[in-house]
Structure formats: C-alpha cells, structure tokens
Amino acid sequence: MKIDIEPTALGVPDAAMAVADWALECRLNRMDCFRLRIAVAEALNNIILHGQGAEEAHHRIVIECQDDAQKLSVSVSQLNGPPITVPTVAEIPGPLSESGRGWPIMFLWLDEVSSDHCNGQNVLTLVKHL
Amino acid sequence: MQLKTDNYGITEQVFLPTQLVMSNAADVRKQIRNMLEKGTVKLILDLSEVEFCDSSGLSVLVSSLKVAQVRGGEVVLLNPTNEVRVLIELTRLHQIFAIFEDQQSAIRHFA
Question: Which residue of B has its CA nearest to A9?
C-alpha cells in the first residue's frame, strides 16, 4: 500500500488510520494496530514539524507499507527534506513534561525504528513484528 | 471547533473531540486555557469520545493541569477508551491525573 499526503498536520490522522486498517488486514491484532497508528502519526508529525513544511508537490510525504510475512514495515519518506535523526536512546519524559513523547512512543511500541538517506530521499522505517 | 461543556456548580465538564492530535491541539489548548483564565479551576476532561490521541494531545492534557494548578485548581480525566488509557499509562500521565470511569464519581471528587 502506498499513501501520498501533503506535509500538513491535517492529513496525519487519516493516513495513520489507513495504515492501521492495512495492518489489521495483515493479521496484526487490534491493540498493536492502535499502537502502530499512534507511532505512524508521531513519525508524520515529526517530519511535518522538522521537515519541509511547504505544500509543494515535491515536498509531499510518501508512506509505503509492506507485509513481509513475519513483520510489517512502514516507510515514511519526504523528498528533499532534511535528514531524519533517530535518537539512540529515547525515554519517556516525566509526566509533567509537555513535549518529547513522540520518539519514545515509537521506540516502545515498535520493534524497529531506523532512518536512511539516499538520492535526496529521507526515509524513516517503522517495523512491527507479527 | 467549539468544545462542548457542561457546568456543575464549581466544576466544568469539557467534552474533548474524537481526535486530539497535532492539527487541533493548539485550538483545544487555547479554549481550555480560556476557561481556566475566566475562573473555572475544577475541570473534568471527558475523554469518552476521544478515539485517537497523539503526543500533542497528551500535551494538551498536561498543560491544562499545569495552568489549573497555578490557579489552585485541579483537572481530572473521565472515561478514556481502553486504547487511550494504554497511551496514558505508557506515558505515565496516570501518575499526575485522577482518572474516573463515571461522571458522578468525577463530580463528587470536586464536591
């Protein structure tokens, strides 16, 4: 499955929901689908906040989902966006903190989180084992 | 989008939207802050309709609590869905919020 959205926050919930629906069809249980949905939303939010925000076609965000029998992979990429730096350690901040939860949620609820950069394309890959 | 509210004397119940996410977090935060600045300091944030909440949404909950506490007030959470409750527990917000399953218990908490 492939989804293409503008780099604005408005498109994030529907895109994350589409990924969760796809994951459910791929045999992921409902609670893990919810976790994947939140993680995808956090990844998209991060790219929108720190990537190229202009609503230009060449800055659109592409989400590609792949079912590899043992795991589900969701790749989020933005052409011409700045490199995505995945933190090496991400701990849940204190409960009174008003920021810093996005990466820890991704780390805790997914099995793998990685980034790559090639041909001007920044790719953040989220993996959930089946 | 205007948040729906109900008033119970000194307590205001605020019905949060079905999605509490980055795209509407600033607006929801502003509306709750306005209520607190107008004198409401005992807030019930009703999560029963919230089916999707990201970290921006969680920040709205936390900022509301902090503004209320500065004014000597309190914020409690009402009836989160199982999924949202899992997120609240993962991020340890249950350590700073009282969470109620029914409205009457939340209102009694402030009585």
Answer: B23
Q: Is the ipTM of this complex over 0.95?
A: no
What pTM value is reported for the model? 0.92
Q: Which helix (H) or strand (E) holds B53?
A: strand B52-53
Are B62 and A98 in contact (CB < 8 Å)? yes
User: Does the distance separating the beta carbons of B59 and A99 come in below 8 Å?
Assistant: yes
pLDDT per residue over A21-71, tens digit each? Answer: 999 999 999 999 999 999 999 999 998 887 665 455 557 889 999 999 899
- Nearest CA to CA, how far is A89 from chain B (Å)? 16
Euclidean distance between CA atoms B54 and B10, whole angstroms: 30
Partner-chain contact B86 A34, CB within 8 Å:
yes
Residue-wise pLDDT tens digits, B37-69: 988 889 999 999 999 999 999 999 999 999 999
What are the Cα distances from residue A76, in Å, to A5, A21, A62, A63, B44?
11, 17, 6, 5, 37
> Chain B within 8 Å of A82 (Cβ-Cβ)?
no
